[in-house]
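Can you give me the bound-state structure? Components:
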Amino acid sequence: MLLLRRTTTIQLLCLIFSCLYLMACQDYSRNNRSIANAGSAVDKNDASRDVHSYANPEQIRVSHVHLDLDVDFDRKILRGSSTLTLQWISAGSNQLKLDTRDLKIIKAEASSDGTVFTSVRFVPGPVDKILGAPLFIILDQKVSKVRIEYETSPNASGVQWLNPQQTAGKKLPYMFTQSQAIHARSWIPLQDSPAVRITYSANIRTPKSLRAVMSAKQIPYLGPRQVGQSGYSFEMSQAIPSYLIALAVGDLTFKALSPRTGVYTEPVMLEKAARELQDTEKMVAATEKLYGPYRWDRYDILVLPPSFPIGGMENPRLTFATPTILAGDKSLVSLIAHELAHSWSGNLVTNATWRDFWLNEGFTTYLERRITEEIYGRPREEMEAVLAKRNLEKELKELKDPDELLYIDLSVRDPDEGFTQVPYEKGSLFLRNLEETFGRQPFDQFLKGYFDHFAFKSITTADFVAYLKQNLLDRDAQLAAKIPLDEWINKPGLPAGAPQPKSDAFEIIERQADDWLQGRIMVADLPTRDWATQQWLHFLQYLPQELSLIKMEELDRRFNLTKVGNAEIAHQWLLISIRNKFQPAYPRLEEYLTSIGRQKLIKPLYEELVKTPEGQERALAIYRKARPGYHPIAVTAIDKIVKSEKP
Ligand code: BES
Ligand code: ZN
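Here's the bound-state model for the whole set.
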């Protein structure tokens, strides 16, 4: 009887819950419609729906987020509140739907006047592996603000907590966030869709010896603080998508590079970083000349510890960058050109959904090349374009057809799966196709107009196509006929007439490599003294897959490749070493994989290792040591490759 009664209660609860959930889902499917919908290359009705967010901004839209957070290094959590300012767009729903992942929600309150808050009901929804969980806040009045008190989990997907050992200084802990694509929800309950633009402000309290930085302007801290705490306040008054909210806390120092640019890093890395990034102001000025004013006031760069899982992140006003670009000769700073370029393509004009990701990355890669050409000359740009196109072609051989479309279908998938060379390089080649067809000057003017027209808006692929037709294609039917528009956007592979970047410098390298491989010259005769990083990369990639031990030894003895400090060249050499079972490089391989967490540099090494049984064992042994130091996103990716049991 008791059992029966309990079952009925549970069933009843389940029923209520399912109803609530179904109601929410129904609203959800009507989500995020249209920012500025037009164009015909993609389906209009579904085009701007964001399948990666539970939020309902078409009914209630969050316009400002205020954070009040304690950074707790002992518990590895952020704790405090997020206050959301609401705009009531349409009647019909009294539920504010937010995105969360692994958040502990403590309390929800609402206020009509913005000062007096009273408790409101909140219902967490079921957890989805990819999306996290919706949070329904039940409001019976059109309140202007909702405040949510919460705590993050130590395993938050968008936060990495570093022990002192994992930092350059080895004395103090460090934490940083990485919100793109859908990880902001793991440290802030909000409407986590790039279609929703918000301004934000924050009060952040840290242990006294540490400094907080954010993708926002720092203002004086006026809030409360406890003994042993420092307080920092920030304000971002320009509307940005949630994936650009960023925070880092550590032993940070700053050095100005020009009146409006500078670098933050741990003290021991500051001078090296400042030297490497010396050309930052020149880059900002060059981009302004091409595409209009820099609209974010300051452009600073935070150089992170080596576990930073990606190369760079375009957080507004404050690019986050991997220290693996510090090669000592500025040879890897096109990554900065890339993140800077996002200040136009991405941060100013933003992809409305992750399907439209190529609007961010393809445009940015195109801009990056233009900046590189401007600052470092055409030959360097050509080398980078050739390297990148070859990487794209290599990846195209492995990808399934649907994943090769610029306008990729990512429903029911993790948007991080769209992070291939396709949105970057295919996108960039598409724009280069437009440039080569219409001429550089008209195309530059078109792009400048595009950034102006859509400034501070989130747009879909259809919006871009409509604008392109109206402002470029329709003005010259003959030239427009040469652009296979639909093929670029909706078909796999590359169109027949895709641009073909060429590099004279690389052709010379190929002849020299052939001469050495066929014994016509000695290894000492390779004229490597003048080789730039890109030439080294090309040389190493050009070598045949199988290389004899003698050839490997010759190269290593002459050029000390096993010890090379340049992280990109080392990566390429280690890849060849694994492939050819070159044992002298194994200790370095282990050192490399346990000190660097940038996925682009470590993933291919693990992938190469697991191709053989011995390699698989080595991968497991190394990964066991390396895993605790990797970022949650990298752990997810490498777990899949190494298939390790959790230690
Ligand atoms: N915005 C991206 C990084 C990103 C993309 C993070 C998708 C999460 C999801 C950034 O601008 C980027 O593209 N970084 C590249 C470097 C660039 C030079 C190609 C990277 O990190 O490899
Ligand atoms: Zn990018």
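A couple of observations. The pocket of zinc ion (ligand 2) is lined by residues 338, 342, 361, 364 (CB under 6 Å). The CA atoms of residues 319 and 537 lie 26 Å apart.
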